[in-house]
């Protein structure tokens, strides 16, 4: 059966053309529903990210810990205690069992000087730490540094999250651009097929050339479907990063990224500054135990050893307790050595990270400049292909152009489009990575 007969019986081009028309018209139904910029995803991710929420809660916990330190170190401690001790004597004063604080000489039982025969106690106690500023100050300092660490960690998490969202957005936007380019090619092929059909019906174009156009159209339509699947998957990954449950197919707004001015100091190095303070604070907290500790204590209530006289044993007492550390095996000196080594490690890492940041930013800046030049030249080449395709269309209307020449030019045009799309994506990723490091 000849190609003309297949066409005449409607067995070949209709279904492919219908598929292409559906693909061409798809943007007007799906992409028109919502256009979302990069800022939408960045703001949504910042609101929904569980790591940021966890860090915020940890900051709240650390604020509470400050109050706990104050309560443990500086606040008077008040308690209520009750004690009852039974210490009977056997064979005392002619009795088998006697509870007394004056047993006979031959009685059996604990030494009366120790137990007084028993204990009846109900006391309100108070313990007041004195001169605690030198003890509490290192603990409060450590708590503040921990809060600073959490705050800096919050910034780092948000920055890392923003970079991931931006990268995924750019890569998904590239797929959207490729879909639009593929649909543009489908438009060009549709226009060329209409012309080829008329020429074939007039006998001015071989049926094989018409079939070649149909094959090219089908390949491009399949590529478009594949790109749309990848685009939908990209939107899904973007939604997952941002904590979005919406499954609506959206159109992404072209991201506009500018190179941030080169910083003289980097937030990445802030971590090492805070960690250095934390290392010094840890040593100070350890040395707290070498401070003399003076406590004032007292109690009031019932404190008796003989039940019959219990009513007369109400009273109070007060005293002072002093503790002065003398020797613990030179632990203070050892901890000081550990602290100096840890500080050296932090300094070395900071120096290395600073060097890597400067080198990476210099390389990225150079790559961005070269990438911009490449895109400029490719865009000029694309304009030339657009002009060539317009000329070919005029020649095709008059039957003066081979389909092979047209499809070759179209394939080259498609290649240049893909290269520009890839280069633009690479440029955006380079700028994003530059801004990520320049922080």
Please tell me about this protein's structure.
It is a single chain. It contains 10 helices and 8 strands. It has 439 residues and is of the alpha+beta class. It has one domain (14-72, 133-291, 326-437): Outer membrane efflux proteins (OEP) (Up-down Bundle), CATH 1.20.1600. A hairpin with a 2-residue loop joins β3 (89-92) and β4. The two termini are 69 Å apart.
Keywords for this structure?
439 residues, alpha+beta, Outer membrane efflux proteins (OEP), 4-stranded antiparallel beta sheet, two-stranded parallel sheet, disordered N terminus
Short description, anyone?
It contains 10 helices and 8 strands.
What can be said about the biggest beta sheet?
4 strands, antiparallel
Oligomeric state of the chains present here: single chain
Strand elements, count: 8
**What's the CATH architecture name?**
Up-down Bundle
And the CATH topology?
Outer membrane efflux proteins (OEP)
What is the element layout, followed by pairings?
Blueprint: H1 3-8, H2 13-25, E1 35-36, H3 38-48, H4 50-73, E2 77-86, E3 89-92, E4 95-98, H5 112-115, E5 118-130, H6 133-201, H7 207-242, E6 251-252, H8 270-286, E7 293-304, E8 314-323, H9 331-397, H10 403-437
Helix pairs in contact: 2-6, 2-7, 3-6, 3-7, 4-6, 6-7, 6-8, 6-10, 8-9, 9-10
């Amino acid at each position: 059966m000849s190609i003309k007969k297949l066409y005449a019986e409607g067995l070949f081009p209709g279904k492919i053309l219908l598929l292409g028309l559906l693909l061409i018209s798809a943007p007007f139904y799906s992409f028109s529903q919502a256009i979302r910029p990069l800022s939408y995803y960045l703001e949504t991710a910042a609101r929904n990210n569980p790591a940021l929420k966890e860090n915020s809660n940890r900051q709240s916990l650390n604020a509470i810990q400050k109050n706990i330190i104050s309560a443990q170190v500086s606040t008077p401690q008040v308690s209520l205690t009750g004690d009852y001790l039974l210490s009977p004597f056997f064979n005392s004063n002619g009795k088998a069992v006697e509870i007394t604080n004056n047993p006979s000489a031959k009685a059996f039982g604990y030494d009366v000087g120790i137990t007084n025969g028993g204990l009846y106690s109900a006391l309100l106690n108070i313990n007041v730490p004195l001169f605690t500023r030198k003890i509490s100050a290192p603990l409060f300092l450590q708590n503040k540094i921990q809060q600073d660490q959490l705050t800096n960690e919050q910034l780092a998490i948000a920055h890392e999250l923003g970079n991931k969202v931006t990268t995924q957005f750019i890569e998904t936007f590239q797929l959207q651009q490729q879909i639009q380019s593929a649909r543009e090619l489908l438009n060009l092929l549709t226009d060329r097929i209409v012309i080829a059909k008329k020429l074939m019906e007039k006998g001015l174009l071989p049926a094989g050339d018409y079939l070649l156009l149909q094959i090219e159209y089908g390949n491009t339509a399949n590529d478009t479907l594949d790109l749309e699947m990848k685009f939908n998957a990209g939107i899904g990954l973007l939604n997952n990063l941002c904590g979005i449950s919406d499954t609506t197919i959206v159109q992404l707004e072209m991201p506009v990224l500018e190179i941030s001015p080169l910083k003289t100091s980097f937030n990445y190095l802030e971590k090492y500054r805070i960690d250095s303070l934390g290392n010094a604070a840890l040593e100070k907290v350890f040395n707290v135990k070498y401070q003399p500790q003076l406590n004032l204590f007292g109690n009031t209530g019932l404190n008796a050893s003989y039940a019959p006289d219990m009513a007369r044993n109400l009273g109070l007492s007060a005293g002072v307790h002093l503790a002065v550390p003398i020797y613990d095996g030179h632990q203070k000196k050892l901890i000081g050595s550990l602290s100096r080594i840890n500080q050296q490690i932090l300094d070395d890492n900071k120096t290395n990270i600073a060097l890597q940041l400067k080198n990476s930013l210099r390389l990225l800046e150079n790559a961005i400049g070269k990438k911009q030049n490449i895109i400029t030249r490719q865009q000029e080449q694309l304009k030339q292909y657009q002009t060539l395709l317009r000329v070919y269309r005029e020649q095709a209307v008059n039957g003066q152009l081979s389909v092979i020449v047209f499809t070759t030019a179209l394939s080259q045009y498609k290649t240049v489009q893909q290269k520009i799309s890839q280069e633009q994506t690479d440029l955006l990723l380079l700028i994003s990575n530059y801004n990520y490091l320049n922080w």
